[in-house]
């Protein structure tokens, strides 16, 4: 076994959870218990009935803050990829085979507002990491409470809510390949009733490869107004103007010859640089949430939200323009019962619904300029769920909870150009009941066992029903499956050590698989049955108790290991039988090791190591991406200036081992163009002002 794996498994052998504890502050000796925003309230991680994780804002800043990728990849079972700057993919207990870019199978929220739109897509790359206060992750299907998902739920908590003190932060970073980043974050508590935040960011990069430049401007604001002792109003708004070039995949020979080149021309098809291939996304997202304490037991929550997106994608063979509009509402009533003889209980009843309007037009791409019309389609979709949850806790030791959701989705389509027979229609996905039953039992005050069974459900997204091959695919079915899971958590009395071990088995029917045609356009098919089993282990250790004196003030280690046994149980396509093969784009092993240390005089250093084993890149398992070990480091010093004013100087390095690897590959690529080479060893540095 690889020595990195032996080291990580040794540290996690006692038992562990996919969780990341908030970094202890150097000026305190108190280690706080980890809490996760799960199932309508914050709950202690130890007794939670699900596999979960919490990532603090401090952890997001431990490495380069251009992307959430380093922080998210410290969580066992969660994997984020980057094919080029700005082009990200995310999978939670799943494969990248549904993700040409963006997110599939996972429901993502910003506080109470779903970022996942009515069409099932999430533009995670619009979010600036500095505007995120914390990240809470629930693993495994949770369709009973959060609508269509089969991988899990990710909840981003923006800055601006629950502000305790005034803060201002300005970051300026520069680095290799023309990197420049500026971030401004302001959090202000006007009084006990009103607080807000404003976050602004700009980043540009020339990129490691030809035709891989990035330009992004993001603005975000959040407001919280407690206008009465029983009620509060929350407002969130985001505007992002994102543009990045896409260099395209290379063959193994092309990567060996020149890994920095963009996809070259092939026959009559021009290359990525000639066609100025890229993504341009201008999105406004807004939401308003209201909470009203009707009585000491009863609370009502309601949120309304919407978004508008102007999307352009010049590609090798066409120029796609999308106009997307979304509107939705989420509301629930929560009833918390009084303690009845050592029994605590609560229940929630609610509804979440979204409607989307999508216009998708394709034109000839004349070297980055729109040409003649190729296709025009209109797709409107509806998605809604009703949900109910009940939870009881007996003697503060045994928690039992059950939830049930009814999910329904549909798509109405109209093919406007070229005109075809039967060019209009409806795609109806059957209403499906989504149950979840779970329990957690504290054997001691520090050791908990848990088990759950839940149903997963994920409908095809708009981008899969009407993909870049310009066809409306009415044959795609929704993914469904049942997840069985058990786990154990242990936390030391002084909270300096916490560990978790989780086992799961998810049997998926109608798994959706990405395919590419001869022109590089993608389309999707159902793959029959997929067997997804896994083991996840995590550990968090405060090697040194946080202290305010001495040359070393804090030293923590976090480890996360995931072993995934994923295979096609039944999958036949175009006369070929892939049954028994490994599921495409799933590594057998992923390992994350994080070591953070702070010293006297404000000196700090953060080390992050990621190991990803080899993985198949096509359904036939004939092409593999090689394993790699990615080592990153960030170090600096924080100096007080005057009053509350402070300055931090930092430097960092990426890919210290100078690995030749591809952080994001093209799946089932036509012409063997699988690889998107990632940067070699590179450096950055910057300054942060704090008030």
Automatic annotation (TrEMBL):
The keyword NAD does not apply. Residues 1-26 form the signal peptide. It is a multi-pass membrane protein. Residues 238-656 form the TonB-dependent receptor-like beta-barrel domain. SUPFAM superfamilies: Porins. GO terms for cellular component: cell outer membrane. One of its GO terms (biological process) is iron ion transport. Keywords: Cell outer membrane, Ion transport, Iron, Iron transport, Membrane, Signal, TonB box, Transmembrane, Transmembrane beta strand, Transport. It is found in: Cell outer membrane. Pfam families: Plug, TonB_dep_Rec_b-barrel. Residues 48-153 form the TonB-dependent receptor plug domain. Belongs to the TonB-dependent receptor family. This is Iron complex outermembrane recepter protein. It comes from Sphingobacterium psychroaquaticum.
